[in-house]
């Protein structure tokens, strides 16, 4: 089976897809798309993804873009019930945190990171406050639990971890959120875990 991930090392969303592939111990080939040179906007890449975004997963004749769509696909196809439960209620509980990441964490931490690290767009302080609010929600939620939901690592944890791992880029002190910091430490000890910016291939 041919499995290709189009990504870039500076992309948090690419990291999320790469992390899911690694946790599932799946072999893949990685092709870097140079965001700094706007390669994603070129005609050749638009044939792969018309919205000009990474990551993109190509698996044989299937092409999937968006890191959450990729993670859900991989979890359901290869993870059995471990990462995304089959039961409707449990699945909904996990999915709500995936959407929390796509909205609260992305629109807070993600935009603050882009503003401060890459000097792009908007009001950094506003983004930062959104990020702090999202971190506080997670920190409070993790006060009496080891994992975000279901008493085990799930796609909820995989989805939220990447934007928590770039807190320094967003100029947010993760030590102000001890429950969140401890959860990140537990997550980093999962089998086949890979950190952000460390690109590894099976």
Short structural summary:
The chain is of the alpha+beta class. The protein has 7 helices and 4 strands; from the N terminus they run E-H-E-H-E-E-H-H-H-H-H.
Q: Mind telling me which CATH architecture of the largest domain this is?
A: Up-down Bundle
Q: Could you give the distance between the termini?
A: 14 Å
Strand content: 5-15%
Strand order of the largest sheet: 2-1-3-4
Secondary structure tally, helices: 7
Number of domains: 2
Which structural class fits the helix and strand makeup?
alpha+beta
The largest pleated sheet is described as: 4 strands, mixed
* Count of distinct strands: 4
Low-confidence stretches: 198-202
Instruction: State the share of residues found in helices, binned by percent.
Output: 40-55%
Mean pLDDT: 94
C-alpha Rg (nearest Å)? 16 Å
CATH class of the largest domain: Mainly Alpha
- What is the overall silhouette? globular
GO molecular function: transferase activity
Protein name: Glutathione S-transferase
Domain GST N-terminal: 1-82
Domain GST C-terminal: 87-202
Write structural notes for this entry:
With 202 residues, the chain is of the alpha+beta class. It has 2 domains: 3-79, Glutaredoxin (3-Layer(aba) Sandwich); 88-189, Glutathione S-transferase Yfyf (Class Pi), Chain A, domain 2 (Up-down Bundle), CATH 1.20.1050. The chain has 7 helices and 4 strands. A 4-stranded mixed beta sheet has the order 2-1-3-4, covered by helices on one side. Helix 1 (12-23) links the parallel strand 1 and strand 2 (29-32). Helix 1 runs antiparallel to helix 6 and helix 4 (88-118) packs antiparallel against helix 5 (124-141). The longest helix has 31 residues, at 88-118. It starts with a strand and ends in a 15-residue tail after the last helix. Mean pLDDT is 94; it is low at 198-202. It comes from Leptospira fainei serovar Hurstbridge str. BUT 6.
């Amino acid at each position: 089976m041919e499995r290709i991930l189009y990504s870039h090392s500076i992309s948090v969303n690419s990291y999320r897809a790469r992390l899911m592939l690694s946790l599932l111990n799946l072999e893949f080939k990685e092709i870097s798309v140079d965001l700094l040179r706007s390669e994603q906007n070129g005609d050749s890449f638009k044939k792969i993804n018309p919205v000009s975004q990474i990551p993109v997963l190509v698996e044989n004749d299937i092409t999937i873009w968006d890191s959450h769509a990729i993670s859900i696909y991989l979890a359901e196809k290869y993870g059995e019930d471990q990462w995304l439960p089959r039961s409707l209620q449990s699945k909904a509980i996990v999915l709500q945190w995936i959407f929390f990441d796509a909205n609260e964490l992305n629109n807070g931490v993600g935009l603050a990171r882009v503003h401060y690290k890459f000097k792009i767009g908007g009001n950094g302080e506003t983004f930062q406050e959104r990020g702090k609010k999202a971190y506080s929600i997670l920190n409070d939620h993790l006060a009496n639990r080891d994992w975000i939901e279901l008493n085990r690592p799930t796609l909820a944890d995989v989805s939220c971890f990447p934007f928590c791992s770039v807190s320094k880029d967003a100029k947010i002190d993760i030590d102000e959120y001890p429950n969140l910091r401890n959860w990140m430490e537990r997550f980093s000890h999962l089998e086949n875990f890979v950190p952000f910016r460390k690109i590894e291939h099976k």
